[in-house]
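Incident log entry.

Two folding requests arrived from the same account within the same minute. Monitoring flagged them as a possible duplicate submission, but the sequences differ. Recording both here for audit purposes.

Request one:
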Amino acid sequence: MFNIRARMSTIYSRILLFNILLVIILSLVPQLIYIHYFSNAYNQEINRQSTQDVSKLKYAVDETILDRVIRLVNIYFSDIPSNEVLAYPLTHDISGNGFKIAEVSNFLTEPKQPMTAKALTVI
């Protein structure tokens, strides 16, 4: 009779151990799969959002900064009659001509009107 009890207790302990391991495995495996799936989805969303933010920033920089720089070049350094004062030093030496230097300085310090449609058609 003692042998039957010992044998039964080892069987119960094995079944208990097997059930505990089975519960642990069955509860951890889906969690690991979900963690892997959601981390991949999260990383893809972060990459997509970052790419979208960089694109928006690129367009914002292009529109605000580069457009102003291009306008600056078109306004001040294009070969139109209103820019003759600024275009002259590009082709001639004015280092000894105080009048031309003052003329360029005065032209640069004058407030400029924003570009109009008429000025854009000339450019």
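Request two (distinct sequence, not a duplicate):
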Amino acid sequence: MSMDDWGVADLVRVVSRAKVPSVAERIERRIELLSQWLQHGVPPGKTIPSSLNKAREWDDAELGITPIGSAGDFVTTNKTHGPRIEAFDKLRKMALKRYGLPPGHKKQGRGQRANTSSTKMIDRTISDLHITAAVSQWHSERDQRLAEQARANAAEGRSIQLLQENAERDVLIADLRRQLASHRGLRAVE
């Protein structure tokens, strides 16, 4: 069957098989890309989005950037993604200051001194983002370790309790056997 013979159902099936990255993954890809551009420069033929809305609509398969459909998902006030959008917007603004606005926009040039301080600010922001991610990972792993420790402590406590119960039952069984043996004519059946 050639693609010309495909029906709507066939096309829907093919499209649904293609994995679309989550909104969080698409935001992280934008942050990762701008971080790289701030450190190594903007590749020829590529532009930095001039606004958050343009960044939301940004579509560049070569860079691994796919658009984010819902405007509500790509705002700094979003409960889920807001902090990452703010981080992206900071990087975007720093990149625009450093490399200028896309063609067709009025440039706001600053002196070399401002560019040096801008570079330091960019490096600090990137460092802050890395530190924030590391601290978040540390807290997550610490919480996981504490939960595992609590489970291990509970299991150890239960094990000690069961050993004590078994010892008490062994004493009771021995006592019952002595009582049984003291009665003449009765024997323990095992």
